[in-house]
Structures are given as structure tokens and as C-alpha cells.
Amino acid sequence: MVNIFQSLLLVIAGATQKDLARQVKYLKVENQILRSRLPKRIVCTPKERVRLIKFARNLGGKVLRQLTTIVAPETLLGWIRAEKKPKPQKRKRGRPNTPEQIRQLILLMARENQWGYTRIMGELKKLGIKPPSRNTVKSILKAAGYEPGPRRGEGTWDDFLKQHAASLWQCDFFSKRILTLKGIREVFVLAFIHVETRRVILSQSTFQPNEAWVVAQAAAFVEQARTQKLRVATVQRDRDTKFTKAVDQVLRSKRVKPKVNEFRSPNTNAFVERFVQSIQQECLDRFVIFGEKHMDHVCREYLEHYHSERPHQGIGIGNELLVRKHNLKPAEAILLNEIQCSERLGGLLKSYQRKAA
């Protein structure tokens, strides 16, 4: 193929003007024959258009009108004129982007409330901010994973916990088989936990958790919680048959709302069940208990350790003590002789603190 072009160039270079005219005429005839075999309209690619413009721009309009066959002469001349004009800068289409500060404010309102996009637009307008369009606000909410419409009804279980944690308690029974003078018997304890602070109140143990006993413990719990300045508005319980209507009535009489878990929903009572798991694994499972008084003593010792000596890893607690008796200044390093170990229940429960100055 290269040799053919070289031969053609040699012929053209050595030709006279008359020879060139004859060769051009021949090439035009040949081009017309080839063109007649092709479709009436040929669409040029951008790359082909650039090549045509490159070789046609210096020929002049008169010559191009005689030579051009692949496209209309006026089309080729239009391409040449367009190429000489300065290209205009591309304009961004559509509306300008929403300022980042307004976008963050929209997400803040959606995160802290149950508002839909219409209410959020109203709040922006109230603040003197011209709100974006409805579709823009909806798009911002959807992109961040929020529903653009308002949340109606009771909401999710997480919503309930967040709204009521400061005054919500959960309660449940736990038991242990202990040794008595009458043999091995099962003893019961009723535990109440404050969801926000994880503070726990335990009842005295009993072999007979009948209705009268549960009613008395529920009433005593409310008084004890309020004495400790812990709010009590709702007590959540499972469907254990030991929680009778009389128990709910005594709670209502003290301005406390009982909330019964749904069927087959074990995770809804997770806070108190996690405490029961802790006291059993860390303490009760490692002891042989002799009688009710021994059981109450072990539970009291563990509860003191749980509140003031044991750091808690729960969400919102941050690996801190529930009840801190002394505020300590942080130190980068402490000598070992400045640390003392405290023990409870024969060394089963240990904690470390600085020695008093």
C-alpha cells in the first residue's frame, strides 16, 4: 500500500500542468463512479470532518463547489467557517447547587425531628432563608437516607427508646437454685433498670413471687427510684404471668405507665436482660448460695460493684462508671504503689483505684 502512494507521488511530482489537469479529471471521474455505488447520504465522523476541513480550507469556495461530492459544498463551507469562530464556553445547565450550609441545616432538622420536606421548607422560610425547591429538598433527604415524608404513627422501637429513655425502666425476673434447710429451692429476684443511666434497683429475694409480693416490690421500686432522683414514667415488662393486672394498677396509681412487650419480641427488653446476664455470669454462677439472706447479700455486693466500681461499655456510657464517688484529675502515668485493689465476695469482684492522698 505504501509503494502505491509513493508511485503516485512520483507521477504527480514529474507531471506538467496539463498532465496534472488530466490526472485530476480522471480522479474526479473515478470518484463519481465510486460515489454512485455508495448511499445517497454519507455521515462523516468527527475525525473525518476534521480531515476534510484540513485539506479544503485553502482551496476556495469556487473550487470546492466543483470538487465536493461526499457532502454538499455549502455544508463543507459551513464547517470551515464554524471552525474559524472562537468556541463559546460551555454553560452549566440547571439550577445552581444548594449551598452546603443550607444542606447541612436541612439534614439537621430531619435528623432531630420527624418532619417532612414541607415542614422543613417552612422552617427555613421562618429563619429568613429562601428554601430550595421541593424536589431539591426531597433529593437532599433521600441522598442522606431520610424519608422525605413526615413519620407518622408510633414510629420504630428505637424512636420510642430515644424519646423515653430518661424516664423509661425495664423490669424482669431472674432466679437461682440455692441450698436451704429444706433442700435445693429456687429463689427469685425482680430487677428494674433505668434505660438512660443503666442504674439498677433489685428487690429482696423470695421463694414465692406471688401477686402480693410483686405488687409490693413494684410499689417499693417506684419510691426508691424517686428517692434517688431518677424519673419514673414508664415501666416496660414482658408477658410473664407473675405480672398481673394488680401490678399494673399499683403502677398507674403512682402515675407510672406499664408497657407490655409484644409477642415474640425478645430484643425489646434487652437492657434488663443484659444486666441479668451480667450478674449471673460474673457473680451468681460462681457461688453456692445458702438461703435468702445470703442471696440478698451477694446481690447487694454485686450491685455496689456494678454501680461504682465496674466501667460500662454500653452505648452512651463510654466505658465510665455509672456512679463516680470522686472526681479524679487525669494522669499520664501512675506509680504501682499509688494503686490499691479492692475486693468483694471473697475476691471474686475486684476493682482498682488510687490511694487516698
TrEMBL record:
| Molecular function, one GO term | nucleic acid binding
Q: Where is the Integrase catalytic domain?
A: 146-338
Q: Which InterPro entries match?
A: Homeodomain-like_sf, Integrase_cat-core, RNaseH-like_sf, RNaseH_sf
Q: Which domain of life is it from?
A: Bacteria
What GO biological process, any one, is recorded here? DNA integration
> Where does the signal peptide begin and end?
none
Q: What PROSITE patterns does the entry give?
A: INTEGRASE
The name of this protein is Integrase core domain protein
